[in-house]
Amino acid sequence: MKSIDVRSYLVDLETLVNIDSVSTDPAGTTQVGNFLAEKFKGLGWQIKSEVYDDTIGPCLKITNSESDKYDILLLAHMDTVFPIGTAKERPYSEKDGRAYGPGVIDCKAGLLSIFYVLESMQQEGKLENASICVFYNSDHEGISSKFSYSHSVELAEKSRYVLVLEGARANGNLVHQRKGIARYKLSIDGVGAHAGVDFTSGRSAINELGSWIMTLEQATDLTKETTVNVGKVSGGTSVSAVADHASAEIDVRYYQLEELKRIEQIMSDMIKAPHVEGTTAKVEGGVSRPPMLPNDETRALMKQIEAIGQELNIPFGWTASGGGSDGSFAAAAGIPTIDGFGPVGGGAHSVREYMEIDTIEPRMCLLEKTIEYIIAAK
What we know:
Distance between the termini: 21 Å
Strand order of the largest sheet: 1-2-6-3-7-17
Oligomer: single chain
Radius of gyration: 23 Å
Number of helices: 10
Number of strands: 19
Largest sheet: 6 strands, mixed
Structural class: alpha/beta
């Protein structure tokens, strides 16, 4: 790989980080998309902007050829979790070899790394016999790629391999495996009553919710890395009233489908036999991201990437992550998928989010050499 202008990269990164692009703000992700589209237009690539829902910004499909089959699909997301105003409150900054700011590692550095690597490879004539597709989506965070996932899966099924530009872990590791994510909304109806005058006539929805919380939290099985988290609750109208309604939102992370079925059976049994007689419960939801599990082709690619890392003197290992990624959809479709190809960083989704500046160029070299290997292995 030719030496890149890291300062130019960081100037571009500052531009992207200083754009508020929360998933629910189409204007912000549109601005990010326009910036990236202009970059690729300069390379002569084909850019297709698609609006999958009015509540999110356009997603971008970017290709270097007319082919409908791809050697590689490169994925990254343009949105962040941070509300409008965050970029102004704590804009891009650099200190002690690190870059800081909302979305700097999750996933704006990855967006740029894709472009810089492909630009370098095109200039060196390394993509002449390759068909590359880039998919930038705008609904990853918070809404689990609800509107774009079917389109990314369609592209993945046309691709030999999928590489995801989420940031490398803080210890430098790439990601080969991720848990599946299921989300549920629990709604409980009880019977309201005056807590002092007519207490015995009431049927507390909050009391019933408490039973659900205890049972679901106990359903966590760390030996199988299954976790159940009741992360948001609400209920009641007054301290002096027996609550006639309560609700909760539940997050389940799992590797094995049998574990998800076990949790869902627990919820089904609780609906049928409430702890507080006279209350009723309803559960809505399901899988938002399937598990990202390596197949034999993925493992073979992992070995090649390890060899490339040794050749480049870039130390890293492999991490199984509990966080979500658009790579999960590709892997579930049977396409060999590797994640974490972005620069090294940490603190995602927090005020501590950072990127290690001195990992920009090495990680782009690792990505370029991996792309070269995949192209040559046709």
